[in-house]
Write a structure and sequence with these properties.
By secondary structure, the chain is mainly beta. Helix content is about 0%, strand content about 45%.
């Protein structure tokens, strides 16, 4: 499996990037080596996830949760 991450459109946004997972054989590098493309079946589905800060405990530790 190959994890694909999508950078935030706004460069000042420092939240974690969104991501999704595809089979490794479906992900290919373009001919110039500076990008990726993937074969995703037309009848299939992909879930995009992005973690966000859920809160901060009394001792200063933060907790993250995943959003789908």
């Amino acid at each position: 499996m190959q994890k694909i991450v999508i950078p935030n459109a706004d460069r000042s946004d420092h939240t974690p990037w969104a991501s999704f997972v595809l089979p490794a054989k479906a992900v290919h590098q373009n001919q110039y080596g500076k990008g990726l493309w993937a074969k995703i079946p037309a009848d299939g589905h992909t879930t995009l996830t992005k973690s966000y800060m859920a809160g901060q405990s009394e001792d200063g530790k933060t907790s993250e949760r995943m959003r789908k």
